[in-house]
Structures are given as C-alpha cells and as structure tokens.
Amino acid sequence: MSMCLAVPFKIISTDGEMAVVEVNGLTQNISIALTPEALPGDWVLVHAGYAIHKIDEAEAKETLKLWEEIHEASQY
Amino acid sequence: MKLHNTERNYSEKLKDIETLARGLPAVSIMEICGTHTMAIGRSGLRRVLPDNIRLISGPGCPVCVTHDREIDNYLELAKDKRVIIATFGDLLRVPGSKGTLNAARSQGAGVVVVYSTLEALRLASNNPDHEVVFLGVGFETTAPTAALSIIQAKSQGLGNYSVYSMHKLVPPALEALLCDGSVKLDGFICPGHVSTIIGTSPYTFVAEQYKKPCVITGFEIHDILDGLYLLLLQMRQNKAKIDIQYIRGVKPDGNPIARKTMDTVFRTGDVLWRGFGVIPNSGLHIREEYRDYDASVKFGLAMDHHYINEKEAICSCGDILKGLKTPNECDLFKGLCTPLNPFGPCMVSTEGACAAYYRYEA
Amino acid sequence: MDTITLAHGSGGRLSRELIEEIIYPIFNNNNGHELYDSALLPLKKGTIAMTTDSFVISPIFFPGGNIGKLAACGTINDLAAAGAIPKYMSVGLIIEEGFLIKDLQEILISLYETAVEADVYVVTGDTKIVERGSADRIYINTSGIGIVPEGASVSPKNINVDDLVIVNGTIGDHGMAILSCREGLSFGVNLKSDCTPLNGLVKELLDVGGISCMRDPTRGGLASILLELAHQSGTKMEICEKAIPLHPSVRAGCDMLGLDPLYLANEGKLAIIANPSKEEEIMRVLQSHPLGKNAQVIGRVASRDLKGTVLLETDLGVKRPLMLLEGEELPRIC
Fold this sequence. Notes:
The complex is a heterotrimer of chains A (76), B (362) and C (334). Chain A is an alpha+beta fold. Chain A has one helix and five strands. The radius of gyration of chain A is 15 Å and the shape is elongated. At the B-C interface, α1, α2 and α16 of B face β14 of C.
C-alpha cells in the first residue's frame, strides 16, 4: 500500500456531503466534504471514497499550454 | 479528459530526457511515493533511462514504514472477540513479530477489508454489538479521510467506532533523510496526491536549505517522463525550486479544507518509522477532544519508542527506505523474503520497493 | 417450507421431497436421462475427456450470473478448451442449513439452462446438507465428460515458435463484476461477468484448424494461464500491453483499486495459441461470433525457453517478465 491511488471521477449528482460519481461506467457513492465547492458536472480526484481535489479543467489546460512552451523553449 | 502533455509521444520524451542528461554528471533521483515506484516498475522505465540517471525508491509506502510495534498492537487487538478490524487490503499480509492479519482472520478474528472509512463507519452502525476499529495507515492523502470519519462518528453518536492512527507525514521524513546525509540525492520526484493536500510550501526547505530540485509529479508514464524532464531541466540550469508537473491534481496551496479537517482531529507527535527510528513531529495522534474515538486510548495500546525487533536488525528495509541499498542488494531478497512470505513490510505492499523490484525489475 | 434444514439431508421424507419436488423438476426433460446415483453412458469412438471443479464463490449472485451458471460454465469450458465436445455433467451440492429454497431453485435453473445451451446433460448428482456455520451457504461441484473427436489434438506440446497468442475478448470482466459486490467495496459497474459456455465457439475454431492449444484463463487471470502454457510448452511468449482488450470499466476499477487486470478472473474467455498461417481465418471466425467480437492477437511465441517465460511489452516499449501472482490480489487504496 503506498501513498495514494486517486482517480478522476465526474460528479453526477450531489446530496449534502455525499455525491454519486462516475467514470467509464463505474459509479460510486463518495463524500465531497473535503471539496464542498464541487458541483454536478465537475471532475474530482477521488481517494478512498472521498473527493480530495476539484479538477479545474480550464485552469489546468491553461497551465499546460504555458508548460509546453517551456518544453519547446528549453531544447539543448 | 487528457490534461497532461501528450503532444510528444513516449520515445520523443525519452529522447528529450537523454538530451538533457547528456550535460549532467551521474545523478540520483528519489521517487518518494510508492505509487510512483509501482508505476515506474510496471512501465519498465528504469531499463530505458540514460545510464547516468538513477531512480531510487524512497520511504513513501505507509505500510513499509509502519513499525512492528504498531502491527503487533493491532494484531493483539484482533484477538478480542468484540473487535472487528476494518482495514485497507494491503495490511492483511504485513508481518509483525508474531503473524499477520490474514493469519489472525483464519483463526477467527473479525477482519473486513474496506475501500474507505465510509465503509468502516457503515460496518460500525451495522454491528452495534461490536467495536469497529479502523486501521489508519497512510500519509497526508489518507489522513483527512480518517479524520472526517471520526468527526462523523461523533456527530452520529457511533460509540463503537474508533481509529488506530498510524498516520505519518511526508515532509518530516524528507527532512530526516536529507539531514542524515548518508545518501547522495540530487533531486526529488514529489508525491502527487500527498501534494494535492499539502501543496508546495512544505517542500520549500528542500529547495532552499538543501538546494535540491523538486517536481510534484502525476502517476501516468507521461507524467513521470515530464516530471523527470522538469527535474533534469532544473539541474541543467543549476536551479532548485518546487515545480508542479501534476497541474491537474495539485494546487500550489493544496487543499486547505482537508488540512483543517486533519488539524481538527489530529495533533503531530514524534513517532517510530520502520528503518528510520523516531522522527520528530512526523506522526498524527488523535486529539484529546476525540479520545473516545482513539483506539489506542480505548484499548490501551502502548507505543514504546525503544522497541527493538530482532527481525529488523537483519532486514535491510531501513537502508532500502533511505535509498542506501536497492532491494536486490539485500541478502534476504528473493530467498528468505518473497511477497508470499515477506520478511519485512517493503516486500508486503505491492508498492513497497522490494515487492515492486520482485515483480517488475527482476 | 422456505429454507433448507438439516432434515433435508437426513435421507428421509424431506430428502425425498427436496429431490423430487425441488431438484428433479428443474432437470426434467433431460433428454430421457434419468437422474440415478450412477449414470450409464453410451460410448462412441474417440478419447474421453474428464474434468472436475468445485465452486465456492462469494457472492453467490453477481451481475451476469450466479454460482449455478458458473458451475456449469466452468466445467463445460474446461472440457471445451481441451478440444473435447462436452457431453455429460454431474452436480454435487453442499448446502448450509437455512439456505433459501427459492435461491436454490434459481441457482439450479441457471445451471440447467446453461447446460442446455451447451448441449450438455446433467446425468447424476448428489445433495448434502451441513449444519449452519459449516459451509458458506452453498458449494457446488460439477464433473464433466466430453468426447475428443478423432484426430483432434489441443495440447501445450503442440505450441511452436511463431505461434500467435489470441484472446477472444476483453479480460477481467468476471473478476471486476465480482469485486463490485464485495462487502466493504461498494461500487457499481456497468459491466457483467463474462460467464458463458464457450464450447460453440471452440467447435468453430477447431473446424478452422491451426489451433495449437487453448486454455480458459479463470482464477489467476490471463497472466497466470500464459505463464502455465509457457512453462508446459517450454517457450517464451511475448505479449503487448497495448493490444490486450479491456472494458473501460475494468480499466477504471483497476485504477481505483490498484489491481492488475492481467490477474483478474475470466469465465468466458480463451487464450488461444494458433499457427500464424491460419491467422486470417481464425480472426474471421472469432470476430463474427458473438463471443469473439473483441478478439485480438496480443502476442506471439518468440522462442524456445525451458524455463517458460512470458514477456510483457509495456507502453514504453520495454519488455518485462510477468510473474506468478504471490497470494491473492488485494484491493488497495493507498
């Protein structure tokens, strides 16, 4: 057992601190108490039955673009 | 959803790494996290990296660093007929000085493998005549979920639920490793999901004080190749900072709500790590306010910091966890110590350095 | 009476009622085969294949089947993979007292229907009842007899260098479907166990020819069965990770639980080792059959190797040896 398996899931519905999430036909009931900002339609990283991070797709894509520029610019 | 750099394919990324490595002396890079160890092993990455890039597996497998004394404590607890042990799967085979949970179960102990503390709570409410004890292993990623379960148990009035906290913290172990100085390390692949919780600032001392580059990295092979690239780039530029490669999973300030939850329930304390001994402020103890949910209080489980286990004296797990030895350099590896009959915990956990070597690097 | 009691196993009136009123009606119209303690079976020319298997699975009902269907498939597929045409089957039941009679009926109906589908007759059987706590609800043993047609030979001895390694579809479906109903791991999957009799598909494959050997990768998964075949044939096999068909839910479940799909159980899959000259015809037969739609060539036999090795080519292009599973594969979260 090591640190941490966490897998991205999409939130289908929420009910208080609980949410139903899905990815590739696999669904589970998880707690979103640690990511209260997460709404249906959002992607979250799920670890051991709890969402631990809301994935901000737009922000991640933006940073990725910047990051690819580093990659391009730093050729030795 | 592809939120990692897939512009380049694997072989192009490997070529980029080779190009960067050409300008460097021999460097040793530690992947702290066991999930990285596992992903690296499964992909066969070590076999295709340039010769001067050495990947060393670090102390980031919570099972591997769980001390014999803790294991013996919960095995003793499992003998109590009132107790149902709720545990993550990998603890089942971890040997203490007198057996494993698996063996205890075959002798009638109540042991249930759970995927989350939510299941452990359910177990407690379905079995009001039993005491459900959740074995809390894991680092910062997992500790908040154990903390929440305690808060929930309290609010639901579930008096038959408790947690045996063996949770540990990653940055103090890094500090111990760097402080020890016996291993030459040139950079760190920092754990992705621990960082999801703690963010970048706990690693600052590694870059500032010890001048070692750090890259917080995701777990797909694309991620690991990109992480290595960023790490080598820092080395080429003589920089030492904390980069985040795993941008889709980690915000610079981590998850403050998860940290607050952890702080509400736990306080830090000095704890024993297998192979390291006592590391100051590296463990999480349940606070006084929640003592009713603390299995070590409820069942009087003592921790003796001077506890010495004979097995540990022969087993090289300590040196392996510190990166001083690779698993195949241990005399017991593959002979006396195999995943089916593990001598030390590094062979037990799938993500332990020894088990990953056994399965993938042999 | 809703539940099984110890008296059902006493050999007295209740035993007779259980057999005559509950069990026999399910197996009636069994092509004239009466269920006696010993079945008398006419013998044709050829070689007889015989197999036995016990089923102790928990949960006994799962998405896509139950222990009864599994008990039929397991024995039918063991015979089919050996190149035999499955013919007859025995059914031995060990039932814990307190078991629901309606569950027993459902399980036996599945077993019977699966046998009928595979053209196999249940010709004898046995029922024992044990005290509560002495068994976990129900255990089933099935033994089967099949006829190997003259001239047919399917054996690891036939495996040659350059033979192809083929699977008839996505792997790990059964293992993941079972895991989804384990206590402590509550998740749902849009996925059924692949539990199904394979003898129809096998017959079509044998008619094409060029099949060196086949095995059904059940417990231990594809990795374990390929290692066994490599060992028995003294060869080195190379398979390519990318080519192995996986249901998306199995992939997601493996990521979530930290499991390797190569070691998950299958109940409707075949690992087929075949002569490359027949590749096109074999793949055509497979892909036009409902049980082979997702068939893939996943690798080949690379060389002779007395140790028996299987190398997996990873996405990085590295070839690493597969190992036998050490102990049971446990779900992990951390």
